[in-house]
Description:
mainly beta; 5% helix; RmlC-like_jellyroll; eight-stranded mixed β-sheet; 126 residues; RmlC_Cupin_sf; cNMP-bd_dom; globular; Jelly Rolls; two-stranded antiparallel sheet; Cupin domain-containing protein
Amino acid sequence: MNGMNIDKALASFEELWSPRILATVNDYDVRVAKVKGEHVWHAHADTDEFFLVLAGELDIALRDRTVHLGKGDTFVVPKDVEHKPSSAEGAHILVIEPSGTVSVGDRHEEVPDHVDVTTGHALTTP
């Protein structure tokens, strides 16, 4: 049961759209990621997805609108709602979702090479 510093966790990797598991709470992963550019349109059929912007700005496009988030802002995408995160200048984000949830959801558009399809990577810090 060790604590983890978010800044140190984020400094331990460079990959974009490749979340790292910061902690697990009950059956939920707390993940951090560095993002820039666009993710993919996707939806999670059985779970909501919580976003917290730690640094920078994040847009979450929904089919009927775009939600703009700045540092300290949160947003929950309800289950089965299609969404597409993006960040023009780059951002650091924290995401909470059930352990084992795939980063591109249950249904998605074609996944480009810059988006990591993962359930979250183990965090390795010195």
